[in-house]
Every structure is written in C-alpha cells, then in structure tokens.
Amino acid sequence: MTRIVYRALLRLHPPAFRRQFAHEMLWTFDEAPGTQAVAPLLLDALFSLARQWLLRSGAWRLAAAGAGGLIQLVLGGFGYMLVWQMHAVSRGGPDAGVERLDLTRLTYIATGVVGGVMCSVISLTLWVKNFIGRRT
Fold this sequence. Notes:
The chain is mainly alpha-helical. The protein has 2 domains: 2-57; 59-135. The protein has helices spanning 2-11, 15-31, 38-57, 59-90, 103-135. Helix 1 (2-11) packs antiparallel against helix 2 (15-31) and helix 1 (2-11) packs parallel to helix 3. The longest helix has 33 residues, at 103-135. The protein is elongated, with a radius of gyration of 24 Å.
C-alpha cells in the first residue's frame, strides 16, 4: 500500500525530474528496511514534490507576492485600527459617537485585498509569460 502512495507521489513530480530521478527514488524506497524507514521517505517525497513545483516552476513568485501583500495588509490594518482608536480616544473615549471597526469588517477588507493582489499577480505573471513566449 505504501509503495502505491510513494509511486503516486513520484508521478506528481514534473516530467523532467521524474525521468532523471524516479527510478532511483523508487529503488531506494524498495530497499528501505522495515516500515520505520518508509515514513521519512514518504515525507521526503512530499517535500520534494512541493519544492519541485514551487521553485522550479516559478510559482514561488506568486507565493512571495501573496505573502508580501498579506504582510502589508496586516500591518496596514493594525495601523488603521490604531489610528481609529486614537481618534476615538481624542473625542472623549472609545464609545464617544465613533463607529468602531469590528473584526468582521476587517476580515472582509483583508479577503478582498488579498484576493485582488493575488488576481493581479497571477494576471501579470501570465501576461509576461505569454509576452516572452511570443518574442522567442
């Protein structure tokens, strides 16, 4: 059963990687002594799969852009809440006629901004890839 799972993980790797390393990886898996040695190999194949698709395909750029946008959003959201609360305190307290920013509204704003950033980055990446493909 574990060999089937391991082979499925190997099949999910990019074709160039499979041609070069799949046979050796499967041989190493078959030669592993007992079930205790199989778990680290399965985990290694899973990490290898993520590494190959993210780093080799350039998808890491999308992940980095999303993380950067999320960091900006979180820092900006906290800054906005801090300014909002300071404004409320200067007018006589946190409940002195000033509408408070609740977590639900901030969640909606965060989801919209992150979704917009992700769509923009994906669109720009696909456009650049298509542009470069036509030039070569």
